[in-house]
Input
Amino acid sequence: IIRSYPPKSDVVKGEHEALGFRLVVVLNGEVLVRAPGAPTGAEGARLGRGGIVGEEYLLDLSKPFQHSIENVSEEPCDLAVLSRDAVAALAAWGLGEELSRRQKMELIRKVYIFRHLSNHHCYLVA
Output
């Protein structure tokens, strides 16, 4: 899913607003990402185009998404969101043991929202 968020706005404020989020890729703009439990106003990591948050949620699908994300751009930001449902659909679609790791990575590279992922991140998704 690709979502656009207005300038200077909250994207997600922890678990209650991020149900189902697994991985977020910044397509345009700049976001501020705060670790779980960090107070509002605390410093976090600034991520620009190609930045990714949520790898740990791909590794453990039962873990709720707890990071807070804020659009700090003066312009709208576009984010690609891989949801829990999308991960389940990919698994049901045949990304199981039938495909080699190399085949999975080639398939992931063909998915439009993953075009900014590094090899390391594709490996985590596969």
Summary: The two ends are 18 Å apart (CA to CA). The first strand starts at residue 2 and ends at 5.
